[in-house]
Amino acid sequence: MELTVGRTFVTVCRLGSLSAAAAELSHTQSAVSRQIAGLERQLGVPLMERHARGVRPTPAGEVFRRHALATLNEADRAVRAARDVRDGAYDRPLVVGATPSLAAGIVPEAIRSLLERAGSIRWSLLPGLSAQLHNRVIAGDLDIAVVTDAPPGLPNDPRVDRRFLGLDDMVVVLPVGHPQAGRGPVRMQTLADQTWVEDNDGSAALLRQHSARAGVSARIDLTAADLLGKLALVATGHAIALIPGVLTCALRTDVTTVGHARHAVVEVQSAQCDPGQYLVARRGT
After folding, report:
1. Which end of the chain is more exposed for a tag (fewer CB within 10 A), N or C?
2. Residues 227, 199: contact at Cβ < 8 Å?
3. DSSP 35-79
4. pLDDT tens sequence across 95-132
């Protein structure tokens, strides 16, 4: 994806109009239409659909928009950093990686505490899955990353230092009108006939582990593109989901959570089912 085309697509999504986007970007409307059409050909999927008041992204377009926006923001930071070097004002920021749930949960609070102690520090936060973040730490793209050892787990890599932060209990997230909402811990057997949604293979494997320990099998009938999409499907009543407890403080208001009770025979083993949180950094940093 060329950055110019990506910027055009994101602008059209934000304004909901090809003509308004063309005016803001100083393009002709036909040029904007050609860029969008070319992007759709390149990806092989429709990204825009028309409605009475203009255009809006398709489901595939909305997923692409979020990733494109992150790419454009990172490109803008790269440009600013290069110009800071030119002007002699470059101050290398701290680049922190975190899984989506930790990025929405404890990491922002931890950064605030750091800034209160250390003063003003330039920093950026890049979400990703644990394996991706581990590789980016090794590559030098990230200074540190806050990850979990949820499936498929973390590699034992001598190139990084790893510090254990703690265990996180998994909870079940439900729409607020669900019959089990507000009833306290719920056994997995009670939820066996429910439709579940997952957003990546690791989370699905964790759900299967919890279900297997309860002697049931979870029906993962829906797949979401990311954590936000997963919660949207829960909020609208299409499914329920297993999420890290650390995310509870950052949930939208139209969902709620319940703990899931475990059989006593597996109680002592329950920590093996719940992911641990780790701080990962390259050795010597």
Report:
1. C
2. yes
3. HHHHHHHHHTS--EEEETTEEEE-HHHHHHHHHHHHHHHHHHHHH
4. 899 998 888 888 888 888 888 887 778 888 888 888 88
Give the angle 159-161-164 at the CA atoms, nearest 5°: 145
DSSP state of 124: E
Output the average pLDDT for the chain: 84
**Contact (Cβ atoms closer than 8 angstroms) between residue 40 and residue 47:** yes
Residue with tokens 């009833």: 183
Q: Do 274 and 268 meet the contact criterion of CB atoms below 8 Å apart?
A: no
60, 46 Cβ separation under 8 angstroms? yes
Tell which residue, 57, 56, 79, 61, has the closest CA to residue 1. Answer: 61
- State the distance between the two ends of the chain, measured CA to CA, in whole angstroms: 34
Q: Give residue-wise pLDDT tens across range 6-16.
A: 999 999 999 99
Q: How confident is the model at residue 28 (pLDDT cuts 50, 70, 90)?
A: very high
Contact yes or no for 279/146 (Cβ under 8 A): yes
CA distance 35 to 245: 42
Pair 247, 234: CB distance under 8 Å: no
- The continuous run of DSSP H or E covering 58 comes out as none
d(C-alpha 222, C-alpha 240), whole Å: 10
Q: How far is residue 229 CA from its own chain's centroid? A: 9
Mean pLDDT of 196-213: 89
| Antiparallel, parallel or unpaired: β 94-98 and 144-148 | parallel
Max Cα–Cα distance, the chain, nearest Å: 68
* Cα 278 to Cα 255: distance, rounded to the nearest angstrom: 28
